[in-house]
Amino acid sequence: MNAAVVVVGAGIGGLSVAHELAVRRKIADVVVVDERPPLTLTSDKSTECYRNWWPGPEAVAAPMMALVDRSVDLLEELAGETDNAFALNRNGYAYLTARSDGARAFAEQAKATADLGGGALRVHGEGGGEPFPEPVYDRLPARDGPGGADLVTDPARILKRFPFLAPDVTAMLIPRRCGWLSAQQLGMILLERFREAGGRLVRGQVAGVEREGERVTGVRLNGGLDSIAASTVVLAAGPLLPPLLADLGVELPLVNELHGKVTFDDYLGVVPRHLPLMIWNDPVRLEWSDDERRELAADPDLSWLLEELPAGVHFRPEGGEGSSRLLLLWAFSTHAIKPATVPEIPPRFDDVYPQVVLRGVARMAPAMKAYLERGRKPFVDGGYYLKTPENRPLIGPLPVEGAYVLGALSGFGIMVSQGAAELLAAHLTGDTLPSHAPSFSPERFSDPAFLARLPELSGSAGEL
Q: Higher pLDDT residue, 274 or 338?
């Protein structure tokens, strides 16, 4: 089989770049190859959220903001072209804190984000300011929502709007160009349009990348077809990227990190359906009974659950008006970090995982404690986030001519997918590159100046 371009991987990254090349750039004979059905390795395991809010070192935040803003522009355009068939909303994110200095920290983050083009901050204090604007919780075009961010510093106003929250909450920050979508529907739209433009999806396991000297000549497959000949190969294999890079002799500092999510039935109606993504921005020390404490303390594998756990437990409603489902998420354990080799698929999660996440959510929404005794068995799912040390994607050409990479999308693959695909296509076609392009190029790991600064950059920058 021959192709002009082979895209390895049918996740959201691979489908997005295939769509960009075949539909928007009109490149003929683009082939996507994957051993699994589309979107089933990692893309369907995400929170399906997006945001143009990126706390962290400016060296990381500025290019990420630029990439995400462009990507959301493209998502909004696609929503308009498809009558919003993938249910893009702008419901917002709600960051919450019980710390006395929480409002000040939020204001500092908002100023930094505003300086990067994230929009103005509106402050709503005690007895002052207008009520913060409510999102439109339906499928109207997302661009109709407010921009910037709203900071509420009056606990009474916060609890009036969200009475299920912990009574010691002190401040709430709601960035507005944030929300979620149906990743599965988005992927299917991209795939359908790709096929209508003449693109092909091939089922097969890629064993490696073929090359002659310093130029790629295609990919070789296990079983069935022997190979697909092509002068251009885009590696977009998600957590399975490292072996393909190794096959090309390319070494990059990558780790696979296991993340889970809990699909939970809020059959008691503890929280309302119309909510932003709710995020507890403080570290959490879980509540345990005396008997549970003794049991955990005696188990060296679980005694760490008695310690303070990281900030970032979050949840959102899942499904339409008739649904009672919630998605609960919390990257509370660094024990899940795996070497950048082929990860275990499907991943396994400890039996204690959903209960820990539920207890973390209960710190934010105390009424959720009712489910510690009365809850129905939740569904636990998850996947691997492939990450660079400073948590920025890899987008651009590799040292072997004709080889490109779109990977290390970490936990923000859905939100950056369209901007990343556009940037990769600009590299591939020789178009003018945006100013943020070098921040994502694999070449940065060959730059001594960048490597010298790398220890200063946080590996979790911008991640919940």
A: 274
Q: Which amino acid, 425?
A: A
In 81-158, where do the E strands start and end? 93-97, 121-124, 149-152
DSSP helix/strand/coil, 425: helix
Cβ contact 424:396 at 8 Å = yes
Identify the pLDDT of residue 323. 94
What is the distance of C-alpha 225 from the center of its chain?
A: 34
The strand pairing partners of 257, in sequence order, are 337, 385
**Residue 263, helix vs strand vs coil:** strand
The reply to whether 59 falls in a domain is no
Q: In what order do the strands lie in the sheet with 200-203?
A: 200-203, 30-34, 5-8, 232-235, 403-407, 394-397
Measure CA 101 to chain center: 28
Instruction: List for the chain the helix, strand, coil content (%; round to 5).
Output: 35, 25, 40
User: Would you say 438 and 59 are in contact if contact means Cβ atoms under 8 Å apart?
Assistant: no
Name the maximum alpha-carbon separation found in the chain.
71
Selected residue with higher pLDDT from 7 and 338:
7
| Amino acid occupying residue 66 | A
**What is the distance between the alpha carbons of residues 311 and 153, in angstroms, rounded to a whole number?**
20
Q: State residue 277 phi and psi, 5-degree precision.
A: -70, 120
Per-residue confidence (pLDDT) for residue 209, from 0 to 100: 95
Among 335, 368, 385, residue at a domain's last position? 385
Q: Residue 460's pLDDT band (boundaries 50, 70, 90)?
A: low
Per-residue pLDDT tens over the stretch 328-365 = 999 887 554 555 566 888 888 888 899 999 999 999 99
C-alpha 176/C-alpha 51 separation (Å) is: 8
Question: Where residue 218 falls among pLDDT bands split at 50, 70, 90?
Answer: very high
Name 336's Cβ contacts closer than 8 Å, sequence gap at least 6: 257, 258, 259
Torsion angles phi and psi, residue 124, rounded to 5: -120, 100
Q: Is 431 helix (H, G, I), strand (E, B) or coil?
A: coil
The structure tokens listed for 20 are: 């960009």
Cα–Cα distance measured from residue 175 to residue 92, given in angstroms and rounded to the nearest whole number: 6
Residue matched to tokens 């709007």: 161
Cα–Cα nearest to 359, from 309, 324, 323: 309
Single-letter amino acid code for the residue at 57: P
Structure tokens at 201: 């999806």
Task: Give the domain range for residue 204.
Answer: 5-48+183-251+389-456
| pLDDT at residue 290 tops 90 | yes
Closest CA to 421 of 186, 184, 236: 236
Domain end call among 351, 385, 419: 385
Count structural domains, the chain. 2
The CA distance from 247 to 195, in Å, is 29
Close Cβ partners of 58 (under 8 Å, ≥ 6 residues apart):
112, 116
